[in-house]
From TrEMBL:
<feature type="transmembrane region" description="Helical">
    <location>
        <begin position="6"/>
        <end position="27"/>
    </location>
</feature>
<keyword id="KW-0472">Membrane</keyword>
<protein>
    <submittedName>
        <fullName>YeeE/YedE family protein</fullName>
    </submittedName>
</protein>
<dbReference type="Pfam" id="PF04143">
    <property type="entry name" value="Sulf_transp"/>
</dbReference>
<comment type="similarity">
    <text>Belongs to the TsuA/YedE (TC 9.B.102) family.</text>
</comment>
<keyword id="KW-0812">Transmembrane</keyword>
<keyword id="KW-1003">Cell membrane</keyword>
<keyword id="KW-0813">Transport</keyword>
<feature type="transmembrane region" description="Helical">
    <location>
        <begin position="118"/>
        <end position="139"/>
    </location>
</feature>
<feature type="transmembrane region" description="Helical">
    <location>
        <begin position="80"/>
        <end position="97"/>
    </location>
</feature>
<dbReference type="InterPro" id="IPR007272">
    <property type="entry name" value="Sulf_transp_TsuA/YedE"/>
</dbReference>
<keyword id="KW-1133">Transmembrane helix</keyword>
<feature type="transmembrane region" description="Helical">
    <location>
        <begin position="48"/>
        <end position="68"/>
    </location>
</feature>
<keyword id="KW-0997">Cell inner membrane</keyword>
Length: 141
């Protein structure tokens, strides 16, 4: 069972939107995590410094919040670790062929009314719904 957390979710979504707007305003770049990370893999992008800073902030800010407040977000998965790795690989392949991820297409692309991003996001969401239905109702997970 998933706990419903509307206020923290709204606040977190607002921060994601603010980060996307600020990155576009100050650097003219889309805040898609896949594109940001790809510039940190050799051969490095010429603008690797802001990419590294963005990634350090994305990891460091939650770590700082946990250390400052003592509040952590528990994570547990009923799926075996091998399923999580396989799922990550499938998502990585989809990101490659879809030319982006949910942050680039779903947050930034849809905000720009990009038809390609709207279609990509619809495919992400439909795939997710089908996967959850199959795993929970057909496979009994």
């Amino acid at each position: 069972m998933t706990e419903f957390t509307p206020w923290p979710s709204l606040f977190g979504g607002g921060l994601i939107g603010l980060a996307a707007v600020l990155l576009m305003a100050f650097h003219g770049r889309i805040a898609g995590m896949t594109g940001i990370l790809s510039g940190l893999v050799p051969p490095f992008s010429h603008d690797w410094s802001w990419r590294a800073a963005f990634l350090i902030g994305a990891i460091g800010a939650p770590a700082l919040l946990v250390s400052a407040t003592g509040v952590s977000v528990p994570f547990e998965s009923p799926a075996p670790a091998s399923w999580l790795v396989a799922g990550g690989l499938v998502v990585g392949i989809g990101v490659y062929f879809g030319s982006g991820c949910t942050s680039g297409h779903g947050v930034c692309g849809m905000a720009r009314l990009s038809p390609r991003s709207i279609v990509a996001t619809l495919v992400f969401m439909a795939s997710t719904a089908i996967t959850v239905f199959v795993v929970r109702h057909l496979l009994g997970g």
